[in-house]
Every structure is written in structure tokens, then in C-alpha cells.
Specification:
The complex is a heterodimer of chains A (668) and B (347). Chain A has 5 domains: 67 residues, Phenylalanyl-tRNA Synthetase, Chain B, domain 1; 190 residues, Phenylalanyl-tRNA Synthetase, Chain B, domain 3, CATH 3.50.40.10; 69 residues, Phenylalanyl-tRNA Synthetase, Chain B, domain 1 (2-Layer Sandwich), CATH 3.30.56; 188 residues, Bira Bifunctional Protein, Domain 2 (BirA Bifunctional Protein, domain 2, 2-Layer Sandwich), CATH 3.30.930; 88 residues, Alpha-Beta Plaits, CATH 3.30.70.380. Helices cover 30% and strands 27% of the residues of chain A. Chain A is built from 19 helices and 30 strands. The N and C termini of chain A lie far apart (88 Å). Chain B folds into 2 domains: 78 residues; 241 residues, Bira Bifunctional Protein, Domain 2 (BirA Bifunctional Protein, domain 2), CATH 3.30.930. Chain B is 39% helix and 19% strand. In chain B, a hairpin with a 2-residue loop joins strand 6 and strand 7. The chains are: A alpha+beta (668), B alpha+beta (347).
């Protein structure tokens, strides 16, 4: 809401600087977002919170300013005259729920011309363009009292005035000259023949006041906030008028605004007031009596404010003090305020004028409570585990990324994702579905970096995935790993996954070949027989579709399963005797798996086997391309003694002999 | 012989002075004490001397040997601990390391600060229903107050608690905890939130928030202030100032917005306006969070007796906190995941 200091001064004498006032208002909750000099005036732009309809009027703002300066505003209310009754036309309301009250005043024989300088300045400094004396007067009164008004050219109205819902497809051309097709959501003002206004939102071009207007029909009304809200949304317009109706308007102000407009049109336009029309019933606004329990109030604040101070603050805010006792004060809120329902509403009123900054901060002693004493659905307590995983992943040399949970449904579908949840009201088509895997975000992050000439990328993300499940849905956290670049192979990825399992002390990890959409060489990651995740390499087609310059290796693990399977670390004794190693050079035919060799080594070395590693890979002319040649180093160790050379040789020879008999294995 | 001994002593003195490291000394040890040393030569002459002379020179040469050994050892001990000098003006070898995302670190820093005060971290779901996201939080239906909280709705079956949606703030976590637990408690709840906002330098359709709340028989406004002062001083700097401005939120009463004195120009704190700071736009203050005393209607909606219990709550945007703390100027950087961005926060 924009208002000017001179406007306020019409209602309240002030001897405070604009800057000082701005700071006081801000600290009382009316945040001044903009303050600027305008000639001899000052323009304030304040944020109006949705509970304060009354700050959409200079009268309401003046009352607030007075309270902030520890004064009471003395607003003069005009006398409301309802005679004579207008004979030419009747006002008919279709549904009182949409419009509880509608009043009209007819002013005749006026002259439409430019407004005097003071009026132009008032309206202009409040951010509204000046048009002519009639329009400026309605705007001035709207600014002053908060009630939107509309002036029709009375000679362009045909017959009675109807407040009714629009017919489907009815056409409305507003004073902004845009044509809109209406629907049943729209409430309109119409005469016998045509729509003359979109109620509470905008007047129609067909009955607009012009230079030639002689007679004016001045509308003031209460429209249902909800109706106006839905109507202006359906029509796609937002005006000073609809903004105010949505936040409610006061029936008393409505009358004052109408009377004062009518008086000004007579004074400034030379017209005469010739008739009053009314339909509906003026709603009775009754303030709710509220009692402030002083002890409870002090407990609520952690600070005591004296009863005298409380009463002064409330009186300045137009409250009526009904009864003041030692421990209680009963009050009746201002009749112009709609935002008092509970005792706590009065608390805020007192303390905001008293000053939030005057309440001394105090650090509470919070009773320590263990997580386990809370009853919360399971994922609620994954936070610490997730952070631990994050720190661990970073210690493995990976960088954490954060990617969007919402993606384009088409992109998700292209990646073989199914059962994803759709947004009903997406902002843009590229963000309209909830992801069921972190793969897409990973691909995009890797791609962005590759395109910026980054190499050897090692990323991880921990975030939720979501999907439909029967009648309901799943939302669960997963850990994704993405590697790219020459230094990173599928064995690095497998090693990282194994390292996580080692860190969490999870036994029974099992990697099973398992086809996955858009991954080649994919493995399912199992803990005993429970699925815990997957890993693989992005297949060539997808790599091409995304225009990735390098391979992407991807793994995804279920955080909930990892936490559940995690075991406390238990110390295991280890051998203090030296480990001895022996190498075997092997050529393995490509249709055979290394698993066969592993099994043979385990079988033959038995309890003395501690580790086996590939120490060398060989490619050369003497090796057929059907074979994979490498050197395997086997480590032997005993728990209770030093193995002799001949013992190790015997074990090793056993392995060699075993391997020698197998098809597809050549010992070199 | 006397003459030779003297020369030997002089040579040794010079050589020892010249020696510049341990290996030089080892060379001297061989030169003066080795099998082919002048000393060994002198010793070899002893058998040809008279008995009397044998006695004298045997003693003298042993003294000399002792002397040489001592001199060499002393010099060597001076070099101990001294190592080869390496030209460290050469460039270092690059170190590869991982990093956590700045948002996840800031989030944890914030949660840790509150955890020190006794808050417990509990997360809530991102897919919520209207009742938890709005109704229980005292939002009237179809009211302008919901405008500021525009929300994505989902194609999930509407249940008893209304339409399913993506939470637009972390406040529904408050409801979930309060429904199932008996006060007193103090909980902090971080997570992702979603709003249909056009993406620009300060807005995104997805961002992170932290919600905090404490309910007890005596949790009051002064406590709320105490907790937030403690937080801001821990998180930003010990000399940061705070101001509480009255505001409106449906779920708190009284409600406040909290500003910190601008961490760039410090104007709010010093009260003198000298510079046009681009961060606070010359205001001297930066809005950082919203808070208030939990509205009795909210407590009641969760089955907590508002006559017996009272509480405070606060909420803040993590991206905003990170942007302020580290001077990040564009919210979009957080989800771009450029290594050049990520590596700056090796936190």
C-alpha cells in the first residue's frame, strides 16, 4: 500500500520526521519498503500483511501511526444521509452470499473536468494515475476509507441494476479495453441489457465516465472475498479494487466512502445528489469481547508489561477497556478491526506497540530428550545417518551434488522410469514429474561439467525418490554415485560400493548380474537376499541421447536398507605373523568368469588365504584376443605362526594344479 | 712425527670447517680414521720406535684418535636433524579430495547449533496433504494468506486429509511431531520444499528450509529470542545484531520476522548510514527468518492443550542463509553442480 504523509496529516497532526516514522512503523509490523520525497510530501510504500485489511486505507494507517506515536487518532466520520430514495432504478441482488450489501448514489448535472491540484497530488502520490475529477474522487475515497467505489455514467445505464453471476460465455470489455469471456465463477454488475462491471474487479467500457458525462451512478458495495478472489482469478486480472475486496471491506467505511465521494462530486463537479438506492442488508460487525489474563500474558512473553501500559496501548489502538482488574483486563477490539479471535491476538497487539526489541532474550533450558523417546514415522530419524554417509562419501574423494526432485515426465519416461507422480499444476513442462531415480540429475550434472571441460568426475547425491504404489505412494531416500572419466572404471565403482558396505560393517553383500534399463553390465546389489541397490554403466544409446562426452558409471543404494543392515563394529583379532604372496600368470578365456578362479583359490588356500589382487594385466601379440591375461597375486597368512616357504609353495601349487585342469584357463 | 701430528691436526681443523653436511663428515671419518688414514700410517710406524718412544707415542696417538673422533662426532651432531634442502618453490602435486555440498553443510551447521541447545532433529515427508500443510497450521481455506504459499498439487488419490501436494514449507513437520508426541520437546526439522516460483537469481521451485519449534509449559517469547540470538551469533558472527519485526503468519501469534545487521556493511548495528551497500540495499538489515509463538489453534489441531502448553516456532531458508554467509549471488548455482562451484566449499 502506497500512501503519502500529507494525506495522513489531513487526519492527524504530526511532528515527526518521515524517516523516524518509517522506522517506528517498521518496528511495529508495518514494514516500510520504500520511502521517497515527492515535492513537499513524502511517499511511503508499506507491506500489508493479509490479516490487516485496515492498512489498505489511509484512515487505518493513520490510526496505526497514532498508536505508534503513543497517541490516539481522532477520525471524523461523515454523516450518512440516505434520502431521497432513487426512483429511476432498483438494485437487485441475485445471491446475498456474493454481495451482502450494495448501495448507489446518483449525482446529477455535474461537470467532468480535471481535479484540483491537491486531489491530483493525493491520488498520484498514492500510486494511482489521475483521470478526471469523478474518477479521482472515487480513488481518493477508496484510498482514504479502504472501500473501492465505482462511478458509472448514469445515462448509459438501461433499467435496473443487477448483481448476478455471469452467464457462461458472456462477454466483458473492461475499461482496460480488453475483451474477456466470462464464466459462472464471475460475479457481474449488469443492467437490463448488458454487463456493466466485473463486480469488485473492474468497470466496463460501455458505462465508463467520460468528459461528456453529466450524471453519475456511484456504486459502493460489499462483495464476498472468496467470490472476488475466484472471479478475478478466472478472469486473470488483479486490481486495487479486487485486492481490497479479497481482504474484506468494512460496512461503515463503505458508507463513509460513498457519502464523502458524493459530497466531493457536488463540491468539485458542481453536481447535486438526487437519490439513494440500496439492496441487501448492512452486515453487523460485532467485536468479540476478549480478556487478557495478565499472568498468562507475562508467561507467554517472558516479561511483564504493566497494566497501565497495556491499557494505554490498547486505548490508542481504538480498543475499549471494558473492565480492568488486578489480574485481568477485558477489552472490546476496535470495531474497524477484523483480526481478533483469541486472547493471543491481543497479546501481539500489545507487544508489537510495546516493542519486540524490549523483550530481553533468554536461552531456555530444554529438557534433553533422546530420539528414541519420540514417536515418529521411520524415515524421520535418517537425518544423522544420511549426514554420516555424506561425510564418508566425501572422504572417499567424491563430491556431493544436489539436483532437482522434479523433472520432465518425458525425460523420466525416456530413462525407463515408471509410476512417477505427476504435478497437477506444473509451472513449466520441463518440471512436471517426481523422479523415481537419481540417474537423470546425475547425468545432467556430469554432462554440464564435461561440457565445461572438467574430467574425472566423482559425484554422489543423497535425496528422496518418489513413486506411485497402488493407491498410495513411496517416498524414500537413496544414495547415488556417478563416476566419469578415464581414471574411473566399473571396478572403481564396485570398490566404492564395497567400501561403503565395509564402513557400515554390513555382511552378506551379493552382486548379481541383473538387467537394468539404460545400464549395461548392470548388477543388482543384494544384502543376503534383500535388494539394496544397483550399479552399472550407462549404455551407449543413452550416452548418445544425452550427448555425453564420456562414459557414466552409476550406482544407487537404498539408504533405509543400509541403515537397517548396518552393524556395530566388533573388534576382530588379526594375525601378527607375516603374510607371504605368490603370483600366478593366467590367461582366462573371455567366455569364462574370474569367479571360477576365485572359487579355486578359496578352495585350495582355505583358512590361509587373506587376499588376492590383480597386479598386472597383459595385452600382447602372444595372447589371443579371446583371452584376458593377467597376474594374480595371492596372499597367504596363518593366525598363529609364520608359514614356511614350503607350506606356501604347497598351497600355491595346489591352486595351480586346480586351475590347470579347468577349461578356458591357461597358466602362463 | 711431532710435525706430522701437528699438520694432521691443522688439516682436520680446515676440513671440518669446510664440511657442510653429514655426508662430508662421513667422508672425513674415512679420511682421518680409516684404514688408509694418516693416523693409521702413524700407528703403523710405532713398532719401529724405541720402547720409551713406543710408550709416549702410543699414548699420544690414542689421545689424537680420541680427539679426531670427538671433533668429527661434534661436527656431525651439529648436522643432525638437518636434511637435504629441497626447492619448495616448485609447484605442489594436486590433491584430489571429495567435498560435501554447501547446502548440506550449512543445513548441518544450523541443525548442530540448535542441537547444542537440546533440539532433536526429525525430518518430515516432502509429499504432504492439505491438512498438514495448511489446515492444521491455521490457514483459512481459499484465503489470500495461502497466496504467499502457492503449492504444487500431485496426481495422487485425495485422502481424508485432503489433496496430496509437495510441501511448500517445512512447517508440516511440526504438525507431525506434535500430533504424536507429548510435550515438552524441542525439534528441528530440515528438508526440501517446493513452490511454483519462476526461477531467477533468488527464487527456485525447489529449495531447503529448516523448521524449529519447542513446546512446553513455559516456552515463551523471550526464549524464542534467546534461541535465535544464540543461533545467529553462532552461525554468522558473535557481533551480529538482530531485530524482531512484527509480522503475520497464520500459524504463529505473536509473529515476527527477524533481520540481522548487514554482515557486509554492518549499518543496522552501527546506526550510521554511510555506504550504499549492495547486499542490504542501504537498509542496514537483512531479513533471515520468520518466527513466533505457536498459535493455540495449531496446538489444539494437534491435540495439545493450549491452556497448559505453549511453544515457539521458527523457519528459515537454507539457500538464503548460505547465500548470505558465503556471498553466493545466484540461487541457481546450488543445483548446477559445477565442480568449480562445488570445490570452493571444501567444508
Amino acid at each position: 500500500m502506497r500512501f503519502s504523509l500529507n494525506f495522513v496529516k489531513e487526519l492527524l497532526p504530526l511532528d515527526v520526521s518521515a524517516q523516524e516514522l518509517a522506522s517506528r512503523l517498521t518496528m511495529a509490523g508495518m514494514e516500510v519498503e520504500f520511502l521517497a520525497r515527492a515535492g513537499k510530501d513524502w511517499v511511503f510504500d508499506v507491506e500489508v500483511t493479509t490479516n490487516r485489511y485496515d492498512w489498505l486505507s489511509v484512515v487505518g494507517i493513520t490510526r496505526e501511526i497514532a498508536a505508534c506515536l503513543h497517541k490516539k487518532a481522532n477520525i471524523k466520520y461523515p454523516k450518512v444521509v440516505k434520502r431521497p430514495i432513487l426512483k429511476e432504478r432498483k438494485v437487485i441482488i441475485e445471491d446475498l452470499k456474493d454481495c451482502p450489501l450494495y448501495i448507489g448514489r446518483q449525482i446529477e448535472d455535474l461537470k467532468v473536468k480535471n481535479s484540483p491540484a491537491w486531489l491530483r497530488e493525493r491520488v498520484f502520490h498514492c500510486g494511482i494515475a489521475t483521470i478526471n475529477n469523478v474518477v479521482d474522487i472515487t480513488n481518493y475515497c477508496m484510498l482514504k476509507w479502504g472501500n473501492p467505489l465505482h462511478a458509472f455514467d448514469a445515462d448509459k445505464l438501461e433499467g435496473n441494476i443487477y448483481i448476478r453471476r455471469a452467464k457462461k460465455g458472456e462477454i466483458f470489455i473492461g475499461i482496460d479495453e480488453r475483451e474477456r469471456k466470462l464464466c459462472r465463477e464471475n460475479l457481474v454488475i449488469a443492467d437490463d441489457k448488458k454487463v456493466i462491471a466485473l463486480a469488485g474487479v473492474m468497470g466496463a467500457k460501455n458505462s465508463e465516465v467520460s468528459e461528456n458525462t453529466k450524471n453519475v451512478f456511484l456504486e459502493a458495495a460489499i462483495f464476498s472475498p472468496l467470490t472476488v478472489r475466484r472471479s478475478r482469478r478466472a478472469a486473470g486480472i488483479d486490481t486495487e479494487s479486487s485486492y481490497r475486496f479479497e481482504r474484506k471491506v468494512h460496512p461503515d467505511y463503505l458508507e463513509y466512502a460513498s457519502v464523502e465521494s458524493s459530497r466531493l462530486m457536488q463540491e468539485l463537479g458542481g453536481g447535486r445528489f438526487t437519490g439513494y438506492a440500496e439492496a441487501g442488508k448492512k452486515p453487523i460487525i460485532k467485536s468479540k469481547k476478549l480478556t487478557v489474563d495478565l499472568k498468562r500474558f507475562a508467561d507467554y512473553l517472558g516479561e511483564e508489561i504493566s497494566s497501565t501500559q497495556i491499557k494505554k496501548i490498547l486505548t490508542n489502538l481504538d480498543f475499549e477497556i471494558l473492565k480492568s482488574q488486578k489480574d485481568k483486563i477485558s477489552v472490546l477490539p476496535s470495531r474497524f478491526r477484523f483480526d481478533f479471535e483469541d486472547e493471543v491476538d491481543v497479546y501481539e497487539e500489545i507487544v508489537r506497540i510495546y516493542g519486540y526489541d524490549r523483550i530481553a532474550p533468554c536461552i531456555p533450558f530444554l529438557v534433553p530428550r533422546d530420539e528414541s523417546s519420540f514417536s515418529v514415522s521411520e524415515p524421520g530419524f535418517l537425518y544423522r545417518f544420511k549426514n554420516e554417509l555424506r561425510t564418508f562419501m566425501a572422504s572417499l574423494g567424491l563430491r556431493e551434488i544436489i539436483t532437482y526432485s522434479i523433472e520432465a515426465d518425458q525425460e523420466l519416461a525416456n530413462l525407463g522410469q515408471k509410476d512417477f507422480i505427476l504435478l497437477l499444476n506444473p509451472l513449466r513442462a520441463q518440471e512436471n514429474a517426481m523422479r523415481t531415480s537419481l540417474l537423470l540429475g546425475m547425468i545432467k550434472s556430469i554432462r554440464n561439467n564435461l561440457n565445461r571441460n572438467q574430467k574425472d568426475l566423482r559425484f554422489f547425491e543423497i535425496a528422496n525418490i518418489y513413486s506411485h504404489q497402488k493407491e498410495s505412494f513411496i517416498e524414500k531416500p537413496v544414495l547415488a554415485i556417478g563416476l566419469s572419466g578415464q581414471a574411473n572404471t566399473l571396478f572403481c565403482l564396485k570398490g566404492l560400493v564395497e567400501e561403503i558396505f565395509k564402513y557400515l560393517n554390513i555382511e552378506g553383500m551379493d552382486l548379481r548380474p541383473e538387467p537394468q534399463a539404460h545400464l549395461s553390465n548392470a548388477l543388482g546389489i543384494y544384502i543376503n537376499s534383500e535388494k539394496a541397490g544397483l550399479l552399472g554403466k550407462l549404455d551407449e544409446k543413452t550416452k548418445k541421447d544425452f550427448d555425453l562426452k564420456q562414459d557414466l558409471l552409476f550406482a544407487q543404494l537404498q539408504v533405509g536398507v543400509l541403515k537397517e543392515k548396518r552393524k556395530e563394529i566388533a573388534y576382530r583379532s588379526y594375525s601378527l605373523y607375516p603374510a607371504v604372496s605368490r603370483d600366478i600368470s593366467i590367461a582366462l578365456r573371455r567366455d569364462k568368469k574370474f569367479a571360477k578362479i576365485r572359487a579355486a583359490v578359496e578352495r585350495k588356500a582355505g583358512e590361509f588365504l587373506v587376499d588376492m589382487r590383480i597386479v598386472d594385466e597383459y595385452r600382447g601379440k602372444d595372447i589371443s584376443s579371446d583371452y584376458h591375461a593377467f597376474t594374480l597375486r595371492v596372499f597367504y597368512q596363518s593366525k598363529d605362526r609364520t608359514l614356511t616357504s614350503s607350506e606356501v609353495d604347497a598351497l600355491h601349487t595346489g591352486i595351480r594344479e586346480d586351475l590347470h585342469t579347468q577349461e578356458g584357463i591357461i597358466l602362463r | 712425527m711431532e710435525h706430522e701430528v701437528k699438520r694432521l691436526e691443522e688439516d682436520l681443523q680446515k676440513d671440518i670447517e669446510k664440511a657442510s653436511d653429514a655426508s662430508d663428515i662421513e667422508a672425513l671419518r674415512i679420511k682421518y680414521l680409516g684404514r688408509k688414514s694418516p693416523l693409521a700410517e702413524l700407528f703403523s710406524q710405532i713398532p719401529s720406535l724405541s720402547t720409551e718412544e713406543k710408550k709416549i707415542w702410543g699414548k699420544n696417538l690414542n689421545i689424537l684418535k680420541q680427539k679426531i673422533t670427538t671433533l668429527i662426532d661434534e661436527k656431525l651432531s651439529g648436522f643432525e636433524g638437518k636434511e637435504e634442502e629441497i626447492d619448495l618453490t616448485f609447484p605442489s602435486r594436486p590433491v584430489e579430495r571429495g567435498s560435501r555440498h554447501v547446502i548440506s553443510v550449512v543445513l548441518q551447521k544450523i541443525c548442530d547449533i540448535f542441537a547444542h541447545l537440546g533440539f532433536v532433529v526429525i525430518e518430515g515427508p516432502e509429499i504432504e496433504d492439505e491438512w498438514h500443510n495448511f489446515t492444521a497450521l491455521n490457514f483459512p481455506s481459499d484465503h489470500p494468506s495461502r497466496d504467499a504459499f502457492d503449492t504444487f498439487y500431485l496426481d495422487l488419490k485425495e485422502g481424508k486429509k485432503g489433496k496430496q501436494l509437495l510441501r511448500c514449507h517445512t512447517s508440516p513437520s511440526q504438525i507431525r511431531v506434535m500430533q504424536k508426541n507429548k510435550p515438552p520437546f524441542a525439534v528441528i526439522s530440515p528438508g526440501r520444499v517446493y513452490r511454483p516460483d519462476e526461477v531467477d537469481a533468488t527464487h527456485s521451485f525447489m529449495f531447503h528450509q529448516v523448521e524449529g519449534f519447542a513446546v512446553g509449559q513455559d516456552s515463551n517469547f523471550a526464549h524464542l529470542k534467546g534461541v535465535l540470538f544464540y543461533f545467529a551469533r553462532q552461525f554468522f558472527s558473535p557481533d551480529v545484531s538482530l531485530r524482531f519485526r512484527p509480522h503475520f503468519f497464520p500459524f504463529t501469534e505473536p509473529s515476527a520476522e527477524v533481520d540481522i545487521s548487514c554482515i557486509i556493511c554492518g549499518q543496522g548495528k552501527n546506526k550510521k548510514k554511510t555506504t550504499r551497500c549492495s547486499v542490504c540495499k542501504g537498509k542496514g538489515w537483512l531479513e533471515v527468518l520468520g518466527c513466533g509463538m505457536i498459535h493455540p489453534n495449531v496446538l489444539e489441531a494437534c491435540g495439545i492443550d493450549s491452556k497448559k502448553y505453549q511453544g515457539f516456532a521458527f523457519g528459515m531458508g537454507i539457500e538464503r542463509m548460505a547465500m548470505l554467509k558465503y556471498g553466493v549471488s545466484d540461487i541457481r548455482l546450488f543445483c548446477e553442480n559445477d565442480v568449480k562451484f562445488l570445490e570452493q566449499f571444501n567444508l
